[in-house]
Specification:
mainly alpha
Length: about 200
């Protein structure tokens, strides 16, 4: 819920934020609090770099968290492996040559973008999508018992369907074999009328 709330407050699609969050938790080794820090940082980075997505930012952070800084340079951060090592391998403590941390450099990026018309439209869409998703989830929960009752019926239908379809096909084949020879002379007689 906190992640969806965050997604709705940002100018990004809920699905994009949820996808980035999944990746963030992987990068953070299962630490959800650290994963959320990665998500917020990736949102700020993407917001301040037109044409870049949260996913792009998250992959840059994933590389950086292993000491590979090349992708971060695409976002304007000029950190090095040496600076990463000097911070004890803590990406959030690492400072670039100018003394800036990643969070310090991008702080508030998503909030700034959220205040634009495009950002506001995205927030409205995100809120509506979340509402629809919640309504769908609630509906499915309420339908659960009825759906459970339909499972045995659907199994019976599935078992009966192949022989029934085979019977229909055999019947149509027999009709075609019986009616076909009767219709053939009529088609031969009418055919020339349509070719003129």
């Amino acid at each position: 819920k906190a992640l969806r709330k965050n997604a709705n407050e940002t100018p990004f699609e809920t699905s994009e934020v949820l996808s980035a969050a999944t990746r963030a938790v992987q990068i953070a080794g299962g630490d959800t609090a650290k994963g959320m820090k990665f998500v917020k940082l990736a949102e700020d980075m993407a917001a301040l770099n037109p044409g870049k997505t949260i996913s792009d930012a998250m992959e840059a952070l994933a590389d950086a968290d292993m000491g590979e800084m090349e992708r971060l340079k695409e976002f304007g951060f000029k950190g090095s492996k040496e600076e990463y090592d000097a911070a004890g391998g803590d990406l959030f403590s690492m400072k670039d040559a100018r003394g800036k941390t990643l969070q310090g450099m991008y702080k508030g990026g998503a909030g700034k973008l959220a205040k634009t018309s495009e950002g506001k439209l995205s927030t409205v869409k995100g809120n509506i999508q979340s509402g629809v998703a919640d309504a769908g989830t609630n509906l499915l929960e309420k339908l659960g018992p009825a759906l459970s009752g339909l499972i045995p019926i659907s199994e019976q239908i599935a078992a009966a369907l192949p022989p029934a379809i085979e019977t229909v096909i055999n019947g149509l084949t027999q009709v075609g074999q019986t009616v076909g020879p009767m219709i053939e002379p009529i088609i031969s007689a009418i055919g020339p009328l349509f070719s003129a």
